[in-house]
User: Fold this.
Amino acid sequence: MNIVASILEVSAATRLGISSLPERRGTALVALAGFAGVVLVLTGMLSIREGFAKTMRGNGRADNVIVLRGGASSELGSGITLEESRTIGAGAGVAQDGAGPIASPELLVIMDVRKRSNGNDANVPLRGVTERAYAVRGNLRIVAGRAFEPGRNELVVGIGAVGQFAGLDVGDTVRSGSVSWTVVGHMAADGGLEESELWADAKMVQQAYSRGNSYQAVYARLETEKAFDAFKDSLTSNPTLNIQAQRQDEYLRLQTQAMNAFITIAGTTVASLMALGAIFGALNSMYTAVASRSREIATLRALGFGRWAVFVSVLLESALLGVAGGLLGVALAWLAFNGYEASTLNFAGSFTQVSFAFAVTPELFAQGIRWALVLGLIGGALPAWHAARQPITTGLRDL
Amino acid sequence: MSWGRLLWANLWRRRTRTVFTLLSVLSAFLLFGVLAATHYAFVGGIDLVGDGRLIAMNKVSFTQPLPLAYQGKIAAVLGVKSVGKANWIQGYYQEQRNFIPWVATDDAYLDMFEEIVITPEARRRWGAERTAAVIGADLAKVYGWKVGDKVPMRSGIWRNQDGTNTWEITIVGIYTSNNAAYDQGSLLTRYDYFDESRTYGKGSAGWYLIQLEDPAAGATVSGAVDALFANSSAQTKTATEKAFSASFASQIGDVGAIVTYVGIAVLFSMLLVTATTMAQAVRERTAELAVLKALGFDQRRIVAMVLGESVLVTVLGAALGLGLAWLLVTGLYPALARFMPAFKLTAEPVALGFVLALVLGALAGIWPAVQAMRLRVVDALRRA
Assistant:
């Protein structure tokens, strides 16, 4: 038998099956809804992972480095003196601009600010920076108000934090301990981590929270990505320094790992359990289909259609239901979750709130459809096999 | 044939279909059970924390220290029984990924936790040895540590005067808890040993723990403590341990809401599956129902039969699913105890599960039951 004939045979059998779908719409819709539910939940949960990773890693660059004290798990547990920060800025391979080396000493204070969604205090990062912080990052824009002025208790707030926390509009005053900060501007950073932060003059932050003149990290731009090893060696070989240097993208990737793994495991576990239920729903649906079409299938076989044509046609029908359910599921997930703004605690890093938006990415789209297709095939295989094996006489006897 | 046996026989006449429907309901309730345990771990477990203790920390945030002098001042506040100090050390063993929750603290702190159970000998050695450490039973299990072991413990925040970030500790006791949901994965060491050898932040505490004379006086005492430091450079924020736990849990995100949404999606799918199955079952049995009616079965018994079958499927599925969920949660618990000490399937969600099964079974059966009730004997028999 040639291939064209086989394709025609299968497509004729499949079309016949699908044409009778409306008569079995009850069970078919259940199978479809089951698939859609699984894909909706899977895609919805994984969109949290994608959104979080996008914010965390979006602005990480391979030619940026972050320098912390040796042994520190994150900026929070780190400490770097003014002296040390100068030595680091003078390290090998640090890029220069008109104002000197592109190296930014920074300190981080966790500040309690009220979260809009539940009215509870949450950890918000207040970053003390100098002018150099803008040069290292390169993509910060003031989108409202103005930048803070050195020497004043002024704040610039990332637009992510503005959405998640109360009282951060331009002109608002934020009280923290015995100090009052005035919000003078909002900043955007292409969706990156900086949008979750509050920025102020490093000197004022040191003063307000009794940090002397110490910092916690130095961010620096390298001349090229390849300059990293030379930079690191120049610092670690210096006996007066006890530091660790990491590429910024790597540093952020490590901080995202745990959350990534957690959501992936939770999302796939929940979706897998739901998928079990959906497969049984699909089995019911396809067995009903096969049972109600037993005469038709027997007639086809009597006309000379092969067993495998019947098998493939039932399987295809189920797969089609799967893909339709999958499409519905990802579409619903996209409508319901894409762009939904939330914030969570960055456990692995600064221990502060990261504001991010759920992201239903093209990869999640494809993954959702793949899942639904596989579920459809699993749900259809057994009924298809039974349909193909049914003796012609049994089917026709029902007539 | 009794009504019950008729119901049972009807259930199994289409064996494959019933089995598939049951399995579908089972998976839904298995998921429901696991979700309930997760929800409890994140949200419900908070209720287990005692109300008789307050936490006082810096108003800016928990990372800002408080002066050591506050301990005595707080102890003098009316209604305060004792005050313990604590410092967060961000411990790890050998490598940073082996994170260990490590708190440097004092006698008062150790003694006010009735949840921390140690032997009198361990308590004596804690008082006598500067490097003494008390560790949770779960933590001891992970690294195989025993009483008497000396362990080099490292900090992700602090540095020791000897130029390292390592403190050698001596394990003098392994604590268990009289409350199964209490965290048994922490490390406690003496504040004096830590404070005298750290290179910065000396003479400060991360937070104070206050034991109340009367648990009901929490609001008054926390107000009095905060008022005491209102005009100082380090203001405090004092609240019950429970309030802090709740506020902290809410920082992760609205886990409760996510779990609820997923739960609704799951139960809705299950409702669909059961409802279609019942509709099919009734459609198939049109002739038979007509015969029963002709024999004089009244409407109520017909409705009861259809509804009964539907409820039987969902309740049976729920029983199997929740049973399996209990096995799974119990089986996973040892592996998860360190991260989620309250990962448990409690009686409440199980009861709720059965109520939901009843409701869903009734909802799924109601339309087919109405159809069966409306069935006119003549029409039905003619159709057959």
Notes: Residues 299-336 of chain B form the longest helix (38 residues). The CA atoms of residues 162 and 383 of chain B lie 94 Å apart. The longest strand of chain B covers residues 166-175.
